[in-house]
Amino acid sequence: MPGNKYNGHPSIPPNRVERLLRERELRRINRTFNAIEELSDGNRESELFENDLRDDNNWDVPPGEELFDAEAAVRALNDGYERNNARPLKQRLLVVANRLPVSAVRRGEDSWSLEISAGGLVSALLGVKEFEAKWIGWAGVNVPDEIGQNALSKALAEKRCIPVFLDEEIVHQYYNGYCNNILWPLFHYLGLPQEDRLATTRSFQSQFDAYKKANQMFADVVNEHYEEGDVVWCHDYHLMFLPKCLKEYNIKMKVGWFLHTPFPSSEIHRTLPSRSELLRSVLAADLVGFHTYDYARHFVSACTRILGLEGTPEGVEDQGKLTRVAAFPIGIDSERFIRALEVPKVQDHIKELKERFSGRKVMLGVDRLDMIKGIPQKILAFEKFLEENPSWHDKVVLLQIAVPTRTDVPEYQKLTSQVHEIVGRINGRFGTLTAVPIHHLDRSLDFHALCALYAVTDVALVTSLRDGMNLVSYEFVACQDSKKGVLILSEFAGAAQSLGAGAILVNPWNITEVASSIGYALNMPPEEREKRHHHNFMHVTTHTAQDWAETFVSELNDTIVEAQLRMRQVPPLLPVEVAVQHYLGSRNRLLILGFNATLTEPVETPGRRGGDQIKEMELKLHPELKEPLKILCNDPKTTVVVVSGSDRSVLDDNFREYNIWLAAENGMFLRPTKGEWMTTMPEHLNMDWVDSVKHVFEYFTERTPRSHFELRETSLVWNYKYADVEFGRLQARDLLQHLWTGPISNAAVDVVQGSRSVEVRSVGVTKGAAVDRILGEIVHSRSIISPIDYVLCIGHFLGKDEDIFTFFEPELPADSSSASRARATEAGKSPVERWSSEDLTLGKNGSKTTQGRSHRASESLDKGRNSHTGGSNWRSSQENITWNEGSSVLDLRGDNYFSVAVGRKRSNARYLLGSADDTVTFLKMLAASTSS
Ligand SMILES: O=P(O)(O)OC[C@H]1O[C@H](O[C@H]2O[C@H](CO)[C@@H](O)[C@H](O)[C@H]2O)[C@H](O)[C@@H](O)[C@@H]1O
Ligand SMILES: O=c1ccn([C@@H]2O[C@H](COP(=O)(O)OP(=O)(O)O)[C@@H](O)[C@H]2O)c(=O)[nH]1
């Protein structure tokens, strides 16, 4: 079903189904409206794009066929008006594909004739009628001169086509080279070309450069014609860079990308040298579509395994940005084929063919002459059938239409000679003076001739080794309602998933199986043929090209709306310059910094095998932070605390040379680097559960390659960051079940799930709970001469530890999430503006003790002291911290508080930063501004 999520959900969610149906109804009304309008003004110019093309190519619609029930139309129209109160408008759609639906042939300096191009993509998109569509692409010809280019642009404009002019060299490198010699075979599981000299490597590189350049040229043309609100639909493997190029122009463009070929298993995609760049570029699109669920699944798994991103039931997530991935099986305009059978010209063809092959069963193959179509395998299977069934020798004929394609690519040239050779041999072996078993045509047929051929066929033979969908099988079914012929279909064509129940499915590599299927099909009783045909016919006539395109575009529109809603839940990016300015304007600052994934250097891409595992597992301070951190730590007006889940030795190793506070194990241990470690652990912390949890972690570590666990004094963490993502996730699920049903079922522990980790810690251990004890210690040990008036708290913290962000917030109403702050931002206010400075100024003179935050100095300091000896109980972060004299430690105005989540999309923090790299850049700015 179109629009299926890649995870195989059986249908679109119910509310969306309802809306889709409503929209479909509106479109129907819209169609009727347009038809009335066009007929009434006799304005043929506004005819649909598709008909414009067909007129020139004899793909004509029989007169009177477009007529409709005018009365019903007007009724529907009024209905539509009532419901909508306005005429529904056609959405502008820019279809961008390598090839325009027409190829141009030059007739003179400034004159051109246009011919329709063959191929599934063209056939499918010709059926798309519901949009104000323009097609942007290459006209299949080199036009070096301006006169020629202008004349061609003009001729194409009449067909609503816009040319992208690619010169010969680009076509050679981009189209023949990177597209058809590298991506095409790879995506069809034929592997990459083998190199035998370094020059080949260099030429791959130049082909890749040309590919990027060509994509940029397409993007330039799209940009030139784009109008706000347009939907831009990019097609196929030729244009994998296009979504990225377009979003670079305009992030608001609605961009969809659809792949017409298979997307191979991630193990195949992994072999491509430019694997990551291509995936990332496609992910810039809002919606990514494939013909089948399998292709979508492969794509998502390539993104998780190769890029280390998160695959969700909706698609792929990268730092909060979701690219939706779904299956949209293409269809054909079945009506057009059914109608064509009534056209006199087609009837004549049918009559001729019947006479020509009377007394023989007709088998048919229609393919571009491409390696993926399995033409040699098909012919060999036919040979085997003839060999084993002499009685059929003069009773069956195989008509093979092999449309020449990509003739400049050497592999295709080789295939042509190979096929000719096999056909010649078989015809020599089984032919007679009056008849040959195989009629092989190296050319394309016009639409009418093709329809006639489909109609007279007894058995259609599709033996693709891999095929995105294969529309020939659909077209055959559409033309078979009277004959009810049999379809033999490769299980490796996307069409096998939709026509599998009615067709005879075969493995094209198994010549014996295909040969016996030919026998089965030729001898099939009429009732079985009827049943099988009916099944396929129902599918082909109800899953049309129109539905496919409408569903894709409507999903794209939905995706954009959903993304906007999601964005509202996400805190805004940190306004770095404001944060720096406020830092400079303050007298006493506190910087609370996370460590892992905040200050650490990048490690090798997760999921990639063969790296240095030991090195990856060591957390290291980002080398570019060393100097800036020193500057910040040495500033007398600044106190820096690193709060981490890591144990003491990790923090010592990384920070011993700085003048800094270290809070290890989520604040359970604390030291200024100038002093000793002290524990803030509460008395009687029950750790009896540790051994049994450790056993479970050991068990899973042994069975999950590249996972590891860390045994800390107050917690245990099992980490699968470097393991295979999917396997790691499955193991984590299993591990949790073991924990819940076993060792911790009665223990006072919290299980904290990270994106690639599972942590077990004593109840109540969180960074937020630790922060007031940390502050107490800082106050106690350091002579702070004035209250803290600037706080920056920045980190990639687990959800449970995000209470550290809210510690410094006033107690806000229930709806005080970052989302509500974001709403305030949307309404024109910055999040911090929502609180007056009074809200957060904490009891300086005891007078403004808003939200009851004023702390009793003695309490706080006692708490700090007690915690040395483990003598304190847990205290909530709501307790305030004040000076001995009773004045507040904090004098924090709302706009001087910056809480920042790193690499997260949903957070309690006020702001976000994308990654540790962004944190590094920001801290460098802060340090630079201090020194200057
Ligand atoms: O433009 P060419 O290089 O001559 O190739 C013709 C087209 O071949 C491919 O078609 C695919 O699209 C069909 C419709 O979705 C699908 O049924 C088929 O399985 C695919 O092979 C190619 O993807 C197109 O871009 C080409 O235009
Ligand atoms: O002589 C021909 C033979 C084929 N086709 C069209 O080419 C398309 C082939 O599409 P398919 O999905 O089967 O494979 P592709 O060639 O796109 O890989 C079908 O729509 C055919 O009607 C055509 O126009 N003329």
What does the secondary structure layout of this molecule look like, with pairings?
Blueprint: E1 4-5, H1 14-41, H2 49-56, H3 70-84, E2 92-99, E3 102-108, E4 111-116, H4 120-126, E5 132-138, H5 146-157, E6 161-163, H6 168-187, H7 198-225, E7 231-235, H8 242-249, E8 254-258, H9 266-269, H10 275-283, E9 287-290, H11 293-307, E10 310-312, E11 315-318, E12 321-327, H12 334-340, H13 344-356, E13 361-368, H14 375-388, E14 396-403, H15 410-430, E15 438-441, H16 447-456, E16 459-462, H17 471-478, E17 486-490, H18 496-499, E18 504-506, H19 511-522, H20 526-542, H21 545-569, H22 576-584, E19 589-593, H23 613-617, H24 626-634, E20 638-643, H25 648-655, E21 661-664, E22 669-672, E23 678-679, H26 690-703, E24 708-711, E25 715-719, H27 725-741, E26 749-753, E27 757-762, H28 767-781, E28 790-795, H29 803-807, H30 818-826, H31 837-840, H32 857-868, E29 897-902, E30 911-913, H33 916-931
Parallel strand pairs: 2-5, 2-7, 5-6, 7-8, 8-9, 9-12, 13-14, 13-16, 14-15, 16-17, 17-18, 19-20, 19-28, 20-21, 28-29, 29-30
Antiparallel strand pairs: 1-12, 3-4, 10-11, 11-12, 21-22, 22-23, 24-25, 25-27, 26-27
The structure holds the ligand O=P(O)(O)OC[C@H]1O[C@H](O[C@H]2O[C@H](CO)[C@@H](O)[C@H](O)[C@H]2O)[C@H](O)[C@@H](O)[C@@H]1O and uridine-5'-diphosphate.
Uridine-5'-diphosphate is lined by residues 118-121, 123, 366, 368, 401, 403, 444-445, 450, 469-472, 475.
